[in-house]
Specification:
Number of helices: 9
Structural class: alpha+beta
Largest sheet: 5 strands, mixed, barrel
Shape: elongated
Distance between the termini: 60 Å
Mean pLDDT: 90
Strand content: 15-25%
Radius of gyration: 20 Å
């Protein structure tokens, strides 16, 4: 079996970073070919270091990585897309963190590929647009769940598998999606889902972003689909998301 290359060049999104030692930064990267990697950028905190400014959180960079004993080593880094609005807007930065936290929870290290990488890069770009970040979050959630094999059933009953009629239904995380009223009778799990919420989720699940971005959903409808999606994700993960709690705190402070 051929030995892996000692060094390789790759694009990478910086998912997390923290200070390490006196001048280094410890990074968690998402790459298209090698999945999630832990790497160290030596001297990156020094003002005149070549890597200073090229290892910013959520940025897309072109990197040359060397394999170390326990960590990869960033030997070169050049920012390709800084996603600057994510540094200047706390709410959008928190949504970006939500995207990253979801990716972390649904994928293991070195267990992601081109599709997850492409989706994250696209979603970070969407967050920089003049759009409601809630649309970005719900679209990303549905598409990541699809890649992970957990796409909710929105067109057929999660129990009977028959096509859903255009009426108010029920949503059961345990049953993997929407349940028709006939099969829901007598069940104690799940919650109601309005026809408008079902239509919105189907739209987000199947349409391109260029079409989704101009949607103008009402506040109550946004809240309904958010509660449904987060309840489903919490059920799958068996734990709450930290980013969601912080977003709710931000909303309370803005009220």
């Amino acid at each position: 079996m051929p030995r892996p290359e000692r060094t390789f060049r790759t694009q990478a999104v910086i998912l997390r970073r923290q200070d390490f030692g006196e001048a280094d930064r410890l990074l968690v990267l998402l790459t298209p070919e090698h999945g999630k990697l832990r790497a160290i950028a030596k001297g990156a905190r020094k003002p005149l270091a070549r890597q200073t400014g090229h290892v910013e959180l959520f940025a897309l960079a072109d990197m040359l990585l060397a394999r170390g004993r326990n960590l990869f080593i960033v030997t070169q880094a050049e920012t390709k897309e800084p996603f600057l609005p994510l540094r200047d807007d706390l709410v959008r930065a928190t949504y970006a963190n939500h995207l990253v936290e979801l990716l972390d929870r649904f994928t293991a290290e070195q267990d992601t590929g081109h599709e997850e990488f492409t989706l994250l890069v696209a979603a970070l770009g969407w967050l920089c647009e003049d759009v409601d970040p809630r649309l970005v979050a719900r679209t990303y959630e549905l598409r990541l769940l699809g890649l992970a094999g957990f796409a909710p059933s929105l067109h057929t009953c999660g129990i009977g598998q028959e096509p859903l009629e255009p009426q108010d239904q029920f949503f059961s995380a345990m049953d993997g999606g929407v349940i028709c009223p006939d099969h829901y009778a007598g069940l104690t799990r799940g919650r109601p889902i309005s026809l408008n919420a079902l239509k919105a989720l189907r739209y987000l699940q199947t349409r391109p972003w260029e079409t989704i971005r101009v949607l103008n959903l009402t506040g109550p409808l946004h809240l309904e689909i958010e509660h449904l999606m987060l309840a489903y994700i919490t059920y799958l993960l068996e734990q709450r998301l930290q980013s969601v709690e912080f977003l709710r705190r931000l909303r309370r402070e803005e009220e």
